[in-house]
From TrEMBL, chain A:
SMART domains: FeoA. Keywords: Iron. Gene3D superfamilies: 2.30.30.90. This is Ferrous iron transport protein A. One of its GO terms (molecular function) is transition metal ion binding. Residues 11-84 form the Ferrous iron transporter FeoA-like domain. Pfam families: FeoA.
From TrEMBL, chain B:
Residues 4-172 form the FeoB-type G domain. This is Ferrous iron transport protein B. Gene3D superfamilies: P-loop containing nucleotide triphosphate hydrolases (3.40.50.300). GO terms for cellular component: plasma membrane. The chain crosses the membrane at residues 214-237, 275-299, 319-341, 353-379, 385-413, 451-470, 558-577, 589-610.
Length: 86, 615
């Protein structure tokens, strides 16, 4: 990971602007219930993975992770901290 | 002789596993159940290039060997050789979505480590290439130590190479299982391997996202979904008219032929009034059920269904449910039995239980016969707006009523007996795809076969039993009591009528409610049989069910009857599957109780207000 760039902890997948490419900086696993945490991991969420928000609705958000699109509720997205790509 | 080798298809959901299964086995498929659990077991025959037959079994899609649902538990137990009623597979076909390697490879690595002879199908390579991703199967094969065959299941590409590799695989002996690293490390190794296998990569094309921008749009999205559902229900009514006419004609012809051939005796009465009247009244709905299933299958195959779940999550969350519940609930529009089974993909127990309890409120296709016949007899056939018929509109309203009822029930349940934190909604959204006519036809054929089997067995038997109960004992000569009133069934119904008379139900309805417990559509068959038995005494001869209904029922009674069917848990199979899925009688009994209460109240309110309005 590029350590010269400071991680902005306030930016999460929930607040990341649409179509702004970013990498997952950290995931607050403790904020998630165990089955949700495991599913999130199984869907490929991990530090250093590149992500992007594609669609927002009043309910869940859809984001791109790698080449896959995943739907998440906002509460879960808020636990995924991201740092925007340059 | 050794049994044919067993080959299991395993992979992540959305890897194109079912399409590969259909391509390899064609229409030679058997759908059954694993003993003790209600997970569907799909198997088929496959002939290997050396002429040996093999049995191919399609395991439920899973993300890992740590199951989070009963479906995934079956997948794990089968590959580990622990599933009751299934031998351990002799070989595995691990299906990977070529466009999703970083994610799918992790599960593949876990499976390869099990030591079973394994072949990897690198599926949907065409979509990946169209998406700008070219992969090197050789690199994957070397790193994983198993053959990797690029395939395009929907175009039947790579199938020969795959069966070729399987011929060798089934000859190999299983090796001892190796340990794998914990999930986070495995994930990193998978990503590294996926990156190593990439020959060239351009950024993913955006057409999927462009489609999603419309389909998931906060305003356009729900509007499209609602329009689709509306078209679906209108189509169920209007497209089915012609084929229904053919089926009716065929049954009428058969009745006439028997009436002209046999003398007027008990056998003729059994065949014409019992079997043909009963089974015919039900088979006639095959076109509507197939149209409904065709829509559901297309929505699933194109990938739209998951978008619908996404759109619905917000509303579902308000009822304390997850958007995931939308798919089982939509399947329940065809039949609550597969709908309740489909709740197995919901990880959260309370969420799942709530979904099971409300699934019977979705208007299943077995209610359609009842609705259509009553609507056809009592609601005038006119257009209220361009292309919108009044009859279709009433039908739509009945569907909406079931949905609203389910919503209210879920709200109440989630605040009382299934109280708990709201579960999550997290799922992979597959790429859009053109549905394959062949896969749709196989799906439709399976539904039609199940329905006709039901019509030929449960429904035929119950209508014959009902005919017997209606035909015996015979009243003495010159008795003023009619055959139906004198019969065993008539006497039982006269007892029930006391309980249902306040909500406007007459004896014929009370009579129809008993066999309708076997299957709702039997209500129509039962009424058909009652009137056929009565008409056979009548000097004017047989009348159609519709004419009989019009002369014998009032409009408030008909409306109350419709309302009853919106809520009543009229189907033993649903109760049985709820028992199996919840491991006991407690929840199904609760479900039956609350639904009957709701049905009685709703039918009563309708009847009384219709009377008060002077209808």
């Amino acid at each position: 990971m590029d350590m010269s760039r400071p991680i902005v902890p306030s930016l999460s997948l929930e607040t990341l602007p649409r179509f702004q490419r970013a990498t997952v900086a950290a995931i607050e696993w403790s904020r998630l219930e165990a089955p949700q945490a495991r599913r999130l991991r199984e869907l490929g969420f991990d530090e250093g993975v590149d992500v992007e928000v594609l669609h927002r609705s009043g309910g869940p958000i859809a984001c791109r992770i790698g080449r896959m699109t995943v739907a998440l509720r906002r509460a879960v997205a808020a636990a995924v901290h991201v740092s925007p790509a340059a | 002789m050794n049994p044919a080798p067993l080959i299991a298809l395993v992979g992540n959901p959305n890897a194109g596993k079912s399409a590969l299964f259909n391509a390899l086995t064609g229409a030679r498929q058997k759908v059954g159940n694993y003993p003790g659990v209600t997970v569907e077991r799909k198997s088929g025959r496959l002939t290997l290039p050396d002429g040996r037959p093999a049995e191919l079994v399609d395991l439920p899609g899973a993300y890992s060997l740590e199951p989070s649902s009963p479906d995934e538990a079956v997948t794990r137990d089968v590959v580990l050789g622990r599933q009751a009623g299934e031998r351990r597979p002799d070989a595995l076909v691990v299906v990977l979505d070529a466009g999703n390697l970083p994610n799918h490879l992790r599960f593949a690595m876990q499976l390869v480590a099990l030591g079973l002879p394994t072949v990897i199908a690198l599926n949907m390579v065409d979509l990946a290439e169209r998406d700008g991703l070219t992969l090197d199967a050789e690199v994957l094969a070397q790193e994983l130590g198993v053959p990797v065959v690029p395939t395009v299941a929907v175009r039947r590409r790579g199938l020969d190479a795959l069966t070729e590799a399987l011929t060798d695989a089934v000859k190999r002996k299983p090796e001892p299982a190796r340990d794998t690293d914990p999930l986070p490390q495995l994930q990193k190794q998978a990503r590294k391997l996926a990156a190593a296998a990439v020959l060239s990569e351009t950024p993913a094309r955006r057409w999927n996202h462009a489609l999603d921008s419309v389909a998931l749009h906060p305003v356009a999205g729900p509007a499209i979904l609602l329009a689709l559902l509306f078209v679906m229900f209108q189509a169920v009514f209007s497209w089915s008219e012609a084929p229904i006419g053919w089926i009716e004609g065929a049954f009428a012809g058969a009745s006439e032929w028997i009436a002209g051939t046999l003398a007027d005796n008990l056998l003729r009465s059994l065949l014409v009034d019992g079997v043909l009247a009963g089974v015919g009244a039900v088979v006639v709905f095959l076109p509507q059920i197939l149209i409904l299933f065709a829509f559901i299958l297309v929505l699933e195959a194109t990938g739209y269904m998951v978008r619908a779940a996404f759109l619905m999550d917000r509303i579902m969350a308000r009822a304390g449910l997850s958007g995931r519940a939308f798919i089982p609930l939509l399947s329940s529009f065809a039949c609550a039995v597969p709908g309740i089974m489909a709740t197995r993909t919901i990880d959260d127990e309370k969420d799942r239980l709530t979904t099971i309890l409300i699934a019977p409120l979705m208007t299943c296709s077995a209610r359609l016969p009842v609705y259509t016949i009553i609507i056809g007899a009592f609601i005038p056939d006119r257009e209220v707006a361009l292309l919108v018929g009044l009859q279709g509109l009433v039908l739509f309203a009945l569907y909406i009523l079931g949905i609203l009822g389910a919503f209210v029930a879920a709200l109440l349940l989630r605040r009382t007996i299934t109280k708990g934190t709201s579960s999550g909604f997290m799922l992979e959204m597959p790429r859009y795809q053109w549905p394959r006519p062949r896969d749709l036809l196989i799906g439709l054929w399976q539904r039609a076969a199940i329905f006709l089997k039901r019509a030929g067995t449960i429904i035929a038997v119950t209508t014959i039993v009902l005919w017997a109960l209606l035909s015996f004992p015979k009243p003495p000569e010159g008795s003023p009591v009619s055959q139906v009133d004198y019969s065993v069934a008539g006497r039982i119904a006269n007892g029930i009528e006391v309980a249902v008379a306040p909500i406007g139900f007459n004896r014929d309805i009370a009579l129809a409610l008993i066999p309708a417990m076997a299957a709702r559509e039997v209500a129509v068959a039962a009424i058909g049989t009652v009137y056929a038995v009565e008409d056979s005494e009548d000097s004017q001869g047989q009348q159609t069910i519709r004419d009989n209904l019009r002369t014998r029922w009032s409009l408030p009674t008909a409306l109350a009857f419709l309302m009853w069917f919106v809520f009543a848990p009229q189907c033993i199979s649903t109760i049985a599957v709820a028992r199996r899925e919840t491991n006991g009688w407690r929840w199904p009994l609760f479900m039956v109780g609350y639904l009957f209460a709701a049905a009685y109240i709703a039918a009563g309110l309708t009847y009384w207000s219709a009377r008060a309005l002077g209808l």
